[in-house]
């Protein structure tokens, strides 16, 4: 439901350009007469691409047949390939000095891009899509790079007692590694940021900005104050995950010996909205003193950033050609969060595909969903599935979209697991004909 602060676009184009091919094919990969030229193009304004961009081409069996690197917006290369269907994966921002990148002989869709010890994450982005090359024919393929890290922009702790000799803030559980297909590995990591004491002796700040892989599920933020070797911890469990493609700003004020009040702001692109979280930490635990969260959001169409104009629509009504399936108040009570389901669906035709390939196909398909400036489309959660009543949705759609089939299976997320539901049933069935019907969450002021 959340996306990039900066709009990102990388164009990978196919053209019949003549240049020298780098000998990067694995053993047994035959040369072909279909020329695939790959390049990048920076967009306008804040549309930035992280370089280098490492690009992989994999055949239908999942074998990597080409790998090459784009070092700037002016670089390009050409691959001569056999006329087949290929899956192209790109990871941007990962240098070989800082990351262990899969080689051409061992790369797969689920290969990890692993951060080396002692270095910090870069502004990582990924993209993927498939392309079918015909004999002696030019093709064009456009991939949209998505940011896969969150940006810890600033942490500031104020009015800290002068007896405190160390302040740190930890985030957990974070994903361990980024995979080539844009997904993540296990979520067992903790990232700790040590703050630096300022000249006034009572303010502590982060010395540099950090990029971190996002959290899975409910994240915990822990603030630790150290006095002469004695450490006091204050923890807060976030009601929403700390997501990629968002700036994070946290400001904390130490009130007295028992209480630490924190306010946190996570900002996204104007069409994505803003999540505001306020914390109160004390020695008895933590509680939320306020906050709100946006969902997928519209394109900044409302007068307030990340907020839709007008009154929140009712459940089972149409809003911008989408059907409202669920509404709830945010934690401040000032906003209504409205979850809508898209008017159209897509068959994924999983067949004998691996789960990894299916996940990649679903991610690529979700990137193509966009309607009336509503973005941030994703699979519904297990809780949201409980509010999907196919009969009501079809009645609301009328003839304005594709009717849902009560006998078909639709994909949803149960935590990190991919599952399907049919009416009130669910399972782990990956057969032909499984359908994609995405949802997103919008925010309205009351």
Overview of the structural elements:
With 446 residues, the chain is mainly β. It folds into 3 domains: 10-147, Immunoglobulin-like, CATH 2.60.40; 150-292, Immunoglobulin-like (Sandwich); 340-445, no CATH class. The protein is 5% helix and 42% strand. The chain contains 3 helices and 32 strands. It has helices spanning 355-366, 382-385, 390-397; strands at residues 10-12, 34-39, 53-58, 64-70, 76-81, 85-92, 99-100, 112-115, 125-132, 141-143, 146-147, 150-158, 166-174, 178-179, 189-197, 204-206, 210-212, 215-227, 230-237, 247-254, 259-267, 274-282, 285-292, 318-319, 322-329, 335-341, 346-347, 410-414, 417-422, 425-427, 435-436, 439-445. The strands form 8 sheets. Strands 12, 13, 15, 16, 17, 18, 19, 20, 21, 22 and 23 form an 11-stranded mixed β-sheet that branches. The protein has a 5-stranded antiparallel β-sheet with strand order 4-3-6-9-11, with helices on one face. The protein has a 4-stranded antiparallel β-sheet with strand order 24-25-26-32. The protein is globular. 37% of the residues are buried. The model is unreliable at 1-30, 42-46, 267-278 and 280-302 (pLDDT under 50).
State the gist of this model.
With 446 residues, this protein is mainly beta. It has helices spanning 355-366, 382-385, 390-397; strands at residues 10-12, 34-39, 53-58, 64-70, 76-81, 85-92, 99-100, 112-115, 125-132, 141-143, 146-147, 150-158, 166-174, 178-179, 189-197, 204-206, 210-212, 215-227, 230-237, 247-254, 259-267, 274-282, 285-292, 318-319, 322-329, 335-341, 346-347, 410-414, 417-422, 425-427, 435-436, 439-445.
């Amino acid at each position: 439901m959340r996306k990039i602060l900066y709009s990102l676009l990388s164009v990978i184009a196919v053209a019949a350009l003549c240049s020298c091919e780098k000998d990067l094919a694995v053993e047994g990969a035959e040369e072909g007469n279909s020329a695939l030229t790959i390049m990048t193009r920076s967009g306008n304004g804040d549309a930035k691409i992280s370089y280098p961009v490492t690009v992989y081409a994999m055949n239908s069996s999942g074998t990597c047949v080409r790998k090459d690197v784009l070092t700037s917006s002016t670089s390009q290369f050409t691959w001569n390939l056999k006329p087949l269907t290929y899956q192209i994966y790109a990871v941007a921002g990962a240098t070989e000095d800082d990351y262990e990148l899969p080689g051409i002989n061992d790369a797969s869709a689920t290969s990890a891009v692993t951060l080396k010890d002692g270095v910090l994450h870069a502004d990582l982005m990924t993209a993927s899509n498939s392309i079918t090359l015909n004999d002696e024919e030019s093709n064009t393929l456009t991939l949209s790079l998505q940011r896969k890290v969150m940006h810890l922009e600033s942490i500031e702790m104020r009015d800290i007692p002068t007896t405190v000799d160390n302040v740190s803030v930890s985030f957990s559980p974070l994903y361990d590694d980024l995979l080539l297909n844009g997904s993540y590995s296990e979520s067992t990591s903790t990232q700790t940021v040590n703050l630096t004491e300022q000249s006034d002796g009572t303010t502590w700040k982060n010395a540099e900005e950090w990029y971190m892989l996002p959290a899975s599920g409910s994240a915990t933020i822990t603030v630790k104050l150290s006095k002469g070797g004695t450490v006091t911890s204050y923890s807060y469990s976030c009601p929403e995950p700390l997501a990629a493609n968002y700036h994070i700003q946290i400001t904390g004020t130490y009130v007295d010996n028992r209480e630490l009040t924190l306010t946190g702001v996570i900002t996204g692109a104007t069409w994505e909205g803003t999540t505001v979280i306020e914390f109160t930490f004390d020695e008895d635990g933590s509680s939320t003193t306020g906050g709100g969260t946006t969902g997928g959001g519209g394109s900044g169409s409302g007068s307030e950033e990340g907020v839709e104009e007008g009154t929140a629509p009712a459940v089972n009504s149409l809003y911008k050609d989408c059907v409202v399936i669920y509404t709830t108040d945010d934690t401040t009570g000032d906003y209504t969060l409205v979850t809508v389901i898209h008017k159209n669906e897509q068959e994924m035709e999983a067949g004998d595909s691996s789960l990894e390939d299916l996940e990649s196909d679903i991610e690529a398909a979700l990137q193509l969903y966009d309607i009336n400036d509503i973005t941030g489309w994703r699979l519904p959660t297990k809780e949201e599935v409980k509010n999907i009543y196919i009969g009501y949705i079809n009645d609301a759609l009328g003839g304005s979209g594709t009717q849902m089939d009560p006998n078909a299976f639709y994909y949803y997320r149960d935590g990190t697991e991919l599952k399907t539901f049919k009416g009130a049933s669910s399972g782990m069935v990956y057969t032909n004909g499984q359908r994609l019907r995405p949802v997103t969450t919008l925010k309205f002021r009351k």
